[in-house]
Design a protein that fits this description.
The complex is a heterodimer. Chain A is built from three helices and nine strands. Chain A is α/β, with parallel strands linked by helices. In chain A, the strands form two sheets. A six-stranded mixed beta sheet of chain A has the order 3-2-5-6-7-8. Chain A has a two-stranded parallel sheet with strand order 1-9. In chain A, about 25% of the residues lie in helices and about 40% in strands. In chain A, α3 links the parallel β5 and β6. Chain A is globular and about 35 Å long. Chain A has a single domain, classed as Cytidine Deaminase, domain 2. The termini of chain B are far apart. Helix content of chain B is about 15%, strand content about 25%. Chain B has a single domain, classed as Beta-grasp domain (Ubiquitin-like (UB roll)). A five-stranded mixed beta sheet of chain B has the order 2-1-5-3-4, with helices on one face. The chains are: A alpha/beta, B alpha+beta. The interface between A and B is medium-sized, with 42 and 25 residues.
Chain lengths: ~140, ~100
C-alpha cells in the first residue's frame, strides 16, 4: 500500500497536467519501510514525448541526494499516460528499474485524473491500494 | 586511488546492503571493474560484457553524468564521489489499452 499526502497527490497531478501534451514524470521520496511518501520531486521529461518519458538524470541525482539527506530514499516514480488508462504499458514494465519501487500512473485520459499505483517485479504487475491523507 | 561509490537501492543487496562502498581506480571504468571484482553480484549490472556502460544505468562523477564526459574513461581522484542510479523511463508506447482513434 502506498501512502500519499494531499500535497504530494496534488503536486503530482498538477505536474502531469502542466506537462501536457507530453507525458510528465517525477520521483517520490519517502520511507521504504512504510511506503509513506514525504516528498514529490517533479522532474523534466527529457524524452519530451506524448508516449514516452525519461526522468532527467541530473534531476534524479539531485532528488536522490535530497531524499537521502532527509533520511529517506527514492521509493518510486510517477508518470502520466495522456490518452490511456492508469495501467503500466509493456514499455513501463520492461524498463521498471527497481522491484522495490512503487510505480504510480496518472491517467489524464478522462476529465477526472486517475491515480493508481503498482509494484512491478519482472513482468508481474500487482496493483496496490493508494491512501491520501491530509498530512 | 580509492573513491566512494554510491549505490542505488536495487544494487545494494549485491554489496551486503551497503549504500556507499569504496573501490580503487583512476577512471570510472576501473572503479566499476574493481567494484564488480569485490562484489561479483554487481558484475554485468553496470558495465556490459563488451565493456560499455549499461543502457539502463546512469553514472555520475560528483554532479556530472559521465555520458557527457569521457564515459568509462572519465578520470577520478580521491575526493570524487561516483554515483550509480537507474535510468528511469517508460511510457504509453506499446500499450494495448489505448483508446481507439
Amino acid at each position: 500500500m502506498l501512502h500519499l499526502t494531499e500535497a504530494v497527490y496534488h503536486q503530482m497531478v498538477a505536474h502531469c497536467l502542466t506537462g501536457l501534451p507530453d507525458e510528465a514524470c517525477g520521483l517520490l521520496g519517502g520511507d521504504p519501510e512504510t511506503a509513506a511518501v514525504a516528498t514529490c520531486y517533479p522532474t523534466r521529461n527529457v524524452a519530451a514525448s506524448a508516449k514516452l518519458y525519461t526522468v532527467d538524470p541530473k534531476e534524479h541525482l539531485r532528488a536522490d541526494r535530497d531524499a537521502e539527506s532527509a533520511g529517506h530514499s527514492i521509493i518510486g516514480v510517477f508518470h502520466s499516460h495522456t490518452h490511456t488508462e492508469a495501467y503500466p504499458s509493456p514499455t513501463d514494465v520492461t524498463q521498471a528499474p527497481d522491484p522495490t519501487w512503487h510505480y504510480v500512473l496518472v491517467s489524464l485520459r478522462d476529465i477526472r485524473s486517475v491515480v493508481r499505483s503498482y509494484r512491478i517485479e519482472g513482468d508481474v504487475i500487482t496493483e496496490e491500494p493508494v491512501t491520501v491523507s491530509s498530512r | 586511488m580509492s573513491v566512494t561509490v554510491h549505490l542505488p537501492t536495487v544494487l545494494r543487496s549485491h554489496a551486503g546492503g551497503a549504500k556507499d562502498v569504496t573501490a580503487d581506480g583512476a577512471t570510472v571504468g576501473e572503479v566499476l571493474t574493481a567494484l564488480a571484482s569485490e562484489y561479483p553480484g554487481l558484475s554485468g549490472q553496470v558495465i556490459n560484457g563488451d565493456g560499455t556502460l549499461h543502457k539502463f544505468v546512469n553514472v555520475y562523477v560528483n554532479d556530472d553524468d559521465v555520458r557527457y564526459m569521457s564515459a568509462l574513461d572519465t578520470p577520478v581522484t580521491d575526493s570524487d564521489e561516483v554515483s550509480i542510479l537507474p535510468a528511469v523511463a517508460g511510457g504509453a508506447v506499446g500499450s494495448s489499452r489505448s483508446l481507439p482513434t
